[in-house]
Request: fold
Amino acid sequence: MGSKTAFVLGGGGPLGAHEVGMLQALLEADVVPDLIVGTSIGAVNGAVIASDPSTTTVARLAELWTELGRAAVFEGSMRSRVRNIVRKQTHIFDNDALRRIVADALPVERIEQLAVPFECVAASIERATARYFDTGSIVDAVAASSAVPGLLPPVEIDGEHYLDGGLVASIPLDRAVRHGADRIFVLQVGRIEQPLVAPTRPWEVALVAFEISRRHRFSEALHDLPDGVTVHVLPTGDPKQFNDFTQYRAGRGDAVARRIEQSYTASAAYLDEHGIGR
Reply:
């Protein structure tokens, strides 16, 4: 049996632009996936690249990020946001813009029509567990995986409601291992590149707790890798401190381009250093 290469794309909201640079570095090095697994914004990036894993698609994905960077998903005045949360009770924004952006970026509608096998994860509310979507509507699955609690509405699929996949698997490395991948490239947004430290301020307590909850499953999967499985965690070139609030701002214009370039440069250097690709 030959080697099976997987791309695992983690969540991270506006920081997901880093994954675009990583994809560019991988594909320029002729590293092509046999499987793609994504969470949240990683599901968006992963679905697009699964439609055609090429540098041409990466360029289209960079254009998509320019649109995302214009706050097309999280838009509206403060007054409209307050009105929405009062009226809708559970979320501030609709997911119509996200659905439109994803649909426009894809040449097919169903997951099973993608060129590369693809899965994305969402958190089932009713069952309090992870569900991996590998068939059905791409837009529905990606919207479910990206349904940030409080910001975007839960997504109903087949009578069940889903929230952001980062709640159950922020970097679904173990899923790629379960599918038999033995060479895995982890595309992440920079948070795991910096270790956590004990909080020193009241507001840092919640941040540390949040980071532990989103990192622990990935850390355990990395520690418990089966023999013969190699994992490459690609660098962003811009590690993020857990208590740096600037990372949560939507990236616009030059910020998006800078994140893509940073991760491309760092990841290309990593691949070269490890003799991966051309």
